[in-house]
Amino acid sequence: MIKEKHININIVGRNINVYKNLGYKCYVGKKLTIDVKDLQKNSHYKITAICDKCKTQKTLSYYAYNKNIKKYDTYLCNNCKQIKIEKTNMIKYGTKRPIQNKEIRKKLEQTNLKKYNNKIASKNTNIINKIISTNLKRWNETSSAKNIIIKTKQRNTIIGKLLKKYKSYNILSIVDDQCEFKCNKNHIYHISFSNLHNRLKQKSTLCTICNPINDNNISDKEIQILKFINIYYNDKILHSNRNIIPPLELDIYLPDLNLAFEFNGLYWHSESYKDKNYHLNKTEECEQKGIQLIHIWEDDWVYKQDIIKSIILNKLGKTPNKIYGRKTEVREVFDNKLVREFLNKNHLQGFVGSKVKLGLFYENELVSLMTFGKRRISMGKKSTNEGEWELLRFCNKLNTNVLGGASKLFKYFINNYEPKEIITYADRSHSNGNLYKQLKFNYIGKTQSNYYYIVDGIRNHRFNFRKDKLIKEGFDPNKTEHDIMIDRNIFRIYDSGNLKYKLFIN
């Protein structure tokens, strides 16, 4: 679907007869407003296309729009195209990408071995020598200098246009193929030369925060998060910035709050592309600079968006509803259905079984919940000692702060259950443990990165794929858990680990 109903075009010699035949009164040199459907199919005029599936908007040429429709029978954004392609591949090959199919990969390797005497064609000595020879002949370099020449020309052209036409934009720095700018609304952002060039051609706003259209290297979902933040936060925002923890990039950084947000797409952030400590290292590098980094995982944004938005608002100090803890009443909650619904609706990790469920009620409505139980096997230990507890879950109702609520619930538990020791964990993806410090817990260390398995676009806890369970399901007992899962084309993704806290009570 196209957003615009009409579009302005320039009448020139090659198109005047086309539009005269359509009934328009026009002459060469005239700017004409036409129905967007009357554009020629191969026209490169820019239109705003709306994905027929997810309603994401993108600026592209009318030619590219028609090409998309011809291929998919409807207009699909890049993300929806990828989903459709993956579904087709799953039907045809049993994998999201053909190359992941063992038979296809084996056939490709056999062909390459036969032709090039190597499983990977580009590693063949003759091909490497041919590439070097061609580059030496054309550019007098072992590697092609063409890209460098093009980038240099493009850079000079773009900077010249910026200085001449966009005086309201300040160029802060130019590093490799990235420009850093500050717009007149005090937003600081990075943009590549190719995307900058496209925006100049489209005559659209350069700032990726004021105008977060989907440039080639930015996820649609990251743009959605940026737009949401920009609604509630009008101070300095840095986007796609590589100067804070170089050479790593921060997707969204709010320097006045020492707060950053990172969008983690499951496919590109899986073990296929990121090592096990990537997210942990990024979190710790931010911590060393006094920055809290919030990781937003793709499946959470897709399936638990209301909870993510509530967390973002809380971090921005923009939570709309505030309730004073003194106006609430503590009650033990025995209705497991109510507990399950509340946790699934308001806590990222959802429901977990627990022995003690304590709720805060305001005007007879549950607004805050804290649960306790014996220590779990999945967290390294199952407690059998009397008086040892684990604080399992705590959350408030969405978009609500209950001031002093956590302390009130925790005090009730200590007074009524007389624990000797309480342990708890803070997920470093979105918590720095401040809540547990306020409750007088002692910090005792941090865990390594935890891993999950990505199944149907959702992270599943590793505990569900233990080797003993896989063997019972009929998989090869001589293989490791990881090897079995790789054979099934199910890959790991690693988080930032946890902070561990303990409280001893005399």
Strand elements, count: 23
**Largest sheet report:** 7 strands, mixed
Class of secondary structure makeup: alpha+beta
Unreliable runs, pLDDT <50, ≥5 residues?
A: none
CATH superfamily of the largest domain: Gcn5-related N-acetyltransferase (GNAT)
Name the shape in a single word: globular
CATH class placement of the largest domain: Alpha Beta
Mean pLDDT value: 85
What's the CATH topology name of the largest domain?
Aminopeptidase
**Proportion of helical residues:** 25-40%
| Integer count of domains | 3
- Please list the strands of the largest sheet in the order they lie side by side: 5-6-7-8-9-10-11
CATH architecture of the largest domain, by name, is 3-Layer(aba) Sandwich
Number of helices, where a helix is a run of at least 4 consecutive DSSP H or I residues: 16
Span from first to last CA?
A: 67 Å
In percent, how much strand structure appears in the residues? 25-35%
Radius of gyration: 28 Å
